[in-house]
User: Fold this.
Amino acid sequence: MPSHHSAVNWSSFKSLRNKYHNLILTAKKRYSSNVVSSSLGNPKQLWQTVNKLLHRKLPSPLPFSTPGISLADNFASYFTDKISKLCLSLDSNHTTSSPHSPSPSTTPPDFSTFNPASKSEIHKVLSDCPNKQSDSVPIPTFLLKECASVLIPTITNIVNLSLISGQFHPILKEFVISPLLKKSTLDKDQLSNYRPISNLSIISKIIERIVKSRLTDHLTSNKLLNPHQSAYCKHHSTETALLGSYTFTIISSLH
Assistant:
C-alpha cells in the first residue's frame, strides 16, 4: 500500500475517532443535565445524583464495632424501647384542653365515616408516589404504575374496604426499618444518633394519603386548624413558621 494512502487513512481515522468521542461526550452531558434537572425539586435526590455522577463513595452509615446480626437486634431493641417511652410520655402529658386557639365558635360536625375513593383519585395518588418500594413487597412501584390500568380497580377496592371497615390489615403494617444517621459528624457507635426510617408498602402509602386528604378537608372546611400552624399544612414550611415567629417578635417589641 502506498504511503500516501496510509497517511490518508490515518487522518480519516483520527477525524472519525474525534467525532465519535465528541458524540459520546455530548450524550453524557445531555444525560447528566437531564438527570440533574429532574432532581431539582428534591434536594436529597439531587445530592444523591451529584454524588453518583462524581463517583463519590459515601462512608458506611452503620457502626463498625458490632456484628451484623447483633447490630440488627440492638437497633430493634433500641427503637422499640424508644417508642414505648414516647407512648408513656404522651400518656403522662395528656390533657383534655382544646389545642385550638381560639376555640371554634360552634361545635364542628362529627367525622365518623370516610368518603370512598374513586378510581381516578387512586390513579393520581399512585402516579404521585415516588418509585420506592419496601423490600417485603414483590412488585416494584414503577412496574405497578405501568400496570395501573389493570390494577387500579383492585387497588381502589382494597382502599375502600379499609375505609368502610375502619380496619388496616396487619400485612399492610409490615415494613422494613432502616437506621439513618442524623448527622454525618455524629458518633456511629451511639444508637441514639440514629433515627428509624420505615419503608411501607405502596398500598399502605395510598391508604395513608387518602385518609390524610379526608382529614385535611374536614379540618380545613370546619376551620379547625390553628392559624399559626405550619406543620402538615399546604403552602406552609419551616420558612413560613420562622417568618411568623419573626413577625410576632417585631409586633411584640413595638408594644
About this structure: The first helix runs from residue 3 to 38. The helical segments are 3-38, 43-53, 68-92, 119-128, 141-146, 148-165, 202-221, 238-254. The beta strands are 176-181, 194-199. The longest strand covers residues 176-181.
